[in-house]
Structures
1.
Amino acid sequence: MHIELVIAKLITVGLGLLITYQAYQGYRVHGSEPMLYVAIGFVFISVGAVIEGILFDVVGLSIFLAGTIQTAIVSMGMLVILYSLYGRMPRTTNGEGNP
């Protein structure tokens, strides 16, 4: 196992989880539903960053299957983040009945 790759993967997961935490805090403090979806999306992306190596080295899957699973997980995270940007979210009114 290459220690440099493991360190790089741990940094990537750490950054992803930090972004997840901050987005979740934004959801909790401000009630912003899109921030909840950003947090969920980054959980998927963070897990996807390391799952390929785990599936290949630890579980013993082929590199093709491990890579396919990793790509699917990261893609799901990106779709959730995309939903946070373009999905239908409840609108608030400006006091005059107009959104």
2.
Amino acid sequence: MTETTDMAETRGVTETLGRRERKKAQTRKALSEAAVRLFTERGFDNVGVREVAEEADVAVTTLFKHFPTKEALIFDEDEGREAALIAAVHDRAPGQSILDALQGHLMRTRIAFRDDTTEFTALFKLVDETPSLQEYLHRMWRRHETALATAISEAIGAPAGDVRAAALARFVMESGNLVQGRENPQQALAEIFDLLAHGWSDGSS
């Protein structure tokens, strides 16, 4: 009887936590979508956080529980992207190389994200034209790069700060930017990763 009761209580707690997480995700999504809509329509500096909160029908205090800064509203998937990069290294298939795992991850995420010219063009333009958003993006990107370098070091058993892991993380993070605007970004990405895997050769040796 006690065991059955404990199981029921555990299930109830799990369901409650699941509802809470879904509610948090919904609120976060509503805030981010409201922010992007207002910022792209009127400009980042012309919209206050109170207006974003009102648009999403939440309190300002709730907004700051989900997003510590106004700039963070634009980069809703920041933490998830970093976690996905790390998971691509640590959770890769048995026998799969780190490079192959990261190439596959970028193929599935970054290129698909950037190829959506209808939804994201205005957002990219907003970031390009707003110095505070550029600075936030730069810090975010460097943080992701550091996290990826740490994951690579751990995966190959190298000490923290290993220069090879740091270099590989830098090249991987920049590869998505390098292929944008090319006729075939997937092929361009494959060529970059082939270079990372096999090294440079100019045919002189």
